[in-house]
Amino acid sequence: MEEKTKIICTSCPRGCIITVTHVGKEIKEINGYTCKRGVIYAKDEFILPKRVLTSTVRISCGELPMLPVRTESAIPKNKIIECVKKICEIDVKAPVKLGQVICKNICNTNVDLIASRDIHKVV
Ligand code: SF4
Questions:
Q1: Is the pTM of the predicted complex or chain greater than 0.70?
Q2: How confident is the model over 94-98, as a mean pLDDT?
Q3: Distance 94 CA to ligand 1 centre (A)
Q4: Whose CA is nearest to atom 8 of ligand 1?
Q5: Nearest-angstrom CA–CA distance, 55 and 86
Q6: Residue 22 neighbours by CB under 8 Å, 6+ apart
């Protein structure tokens, strides 16, 4: 039986509401987009939605107690809880540089967790 799933395209500020018509996970039709980027976005979002994860990890000997971090690119949404648990276990030591890899290939996503800012060491 055909179903319709509505997806808001966030590729630009216009925010087109795209309708994906599907049977189970098989896409039959895509409507409501204004440009090709919307088709790609809707397909990706329907098949395997991804997000960039931002968080903080504990840091010792630094000017701040927590280091802001993010995934270098988007990771599958269904991996986010596992990655958050992993992030809670991480402890780093200052100094840390912006873009430094904090956790390589976090939870086998093929994406690194990186520092979002410098943290200097406090002496
Ligand atoms: S479909 Fe195209 S115009 Fe519409 S929100 Fe997406 S990128 Fe923007």
A1: yes
A2: 98
A3: 42
A4: 12
A5: 11
A6: 2, 3, 4, 5, 28, 46
